[in-house]
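Subject: two folds for Thursday's group meeting

Dear M.,

Sorry for the delay on this. The cluster queue was jammed most of the week, so I only got both jobs back this morning. I'm pasting them in the order they finished. Each block is the input sequence followed by the predicted structure tokens. Could you check whether the formatting survives your parser before we put anything on slides? The first protein is the one we discussed after the seminar.
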Amino acid sequence: MDLLFQPLTLGALTLPNRILMAPLTRCRAEADHVPGDLMAEYYAQRASAGLIIAEATMAMEGNSAFWKEPGIYSEAQIAGWRKTTDAVHAAGGRIFLQIWHGGRACHPLLNNGRQPVAPSPIAITDDEVRTPQGKQPYTVPRELHDEEIPGIVAGFQQAAKNAQAAGFDGVEVHGANGYLLDEFLRDGSNQRTGAYGGIIANRARFMLEVIDAVCTVWGSDRVGLRISPLNSYNSMIDSDPIGVCTWLATKLNEFNLAYLHVMRSDFAQQQQGDVLTPIREYYQGTLIGNMGYSPEEANAAIAAGKVDAIAFGSLFIANPDLPERIQHNAAFNPPNPATFYTPGPEGYTDYPTLASAALAEPV
């Protein structure tokens, strides 16, 4: 596992290892989407990651898709996130914030009756959304008007400023998993015409405008982007995912980002293909792979030059000391999916570390 523990220059940062924590929605925010002490404890427990990428966080008010996800648009949220960044930094870690707009995955019951927006009026049909009234079908979104887009770009820019005020080390723009920017990028959800529809250059325009705006706040060397070209989650599909990857990877070279974070496959295994190879061929920056890697495969992928680092998801949920466990070839705690989105510390901050397990053993 030697390569996983080699330092990595990632934009303005130098990471002590290449074992990154992927952004993971956990629905533990307090009232008004404010991060609290429990979230600070959770992230600080995982500070040995080369980089923590914090969970999807609402860039602007009124776009909730998970009921109890955090935001970064109010002073209370900025102060709440400061608890997390202070705790992570005190533990020696580094942390980016993933800024996000839920698009058509938002629901009126979570947003005071507000209809969600999307590139086209096409609803998510493959799942239901959790609300205070139980699981509900997704609603048909309203088509976003071209003249509304600059306001959302400005919202992302303000979110980037707020993330700075909260003490983060950088931000990741969420362009994956069927949320607003991804909805514009892929032709299964974007069936509009005009400046933001049709050819890939137009469909990617919104995402690139957001990246450009965020980079004016942080500098590009503290900005990352996450994409999921094959993931069908949230009823997503594209007719040419390889073509999208190739075009986007080439275009992103103009930005000199800290990294490009790629979800390599499909949760539901509906869409198949190899997107990492063409991205690696055309993208000149730091490439992070994600989805289903074992530590052994991660080390081999870095050795083969396929990626520069790996972001682990469920392994980090259940193993706050994941780098130490990998380094010592220790057994992993199994994650409990039943507690992924439930309130409180169970399945969140109560997974044992190697050190705590040793202390609990009888003498």
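Second protein, same layout:
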Amino acid sequence: MALLAFGAMIVWLNGTHGAGKTTTSAIVQQLIPDSRVFDAEKVGETLMDISPGLPATDNFQHWPPWRPLVVETAKRVLDYTGGTLVMPMTVLVEEYWREISDGLAQHAIPVRHFVIHADQDTLYARIAGDHDTPSPFRLNYLEPYAQAARTWLHAEAEVIDTTHLTPYQSAREIAEAPGN
């Protein structure tokens, strides 16, 4: 059942790895008519496939082409399809978020920025529950997420505390957010 039509825009789901962005985005997409999920990680994967490789990094977001390519890809998809893009993507570096959000604003693409949040114990439990051995990659982002949340991220977004919510409840909260 569709709840709301957002119109041509982006619903960005931010938050740390393991918070539930991917699961929630699939449900949000079902609740918003004429919407699609666009995972900007695929842009990073494309850059990782360049051979010979780009300079070594621990995160493709550090490559300068990633951010404008995300903006350009989102713009091109919206130009082609219209509707809403639901984008589950962790961005914890404020400078990177500004570059992306400013780029989208230059194209007059409205963005609703949500943070899928949970307390640290819940995040650890979710990450540990994903596999027999918790993902070191995901665990390594718990502290950078906490730092970003304290310093800029929560002030820049609508925070959905999912500590005690199911992914469906979280998605519904996003789809029913005031102002949509």
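Two things I noticed about the second structure. Residues 34 and 173 are 18 Å apart (CA to CA). The chain has one domain: 9-175.

Cheers,
T.
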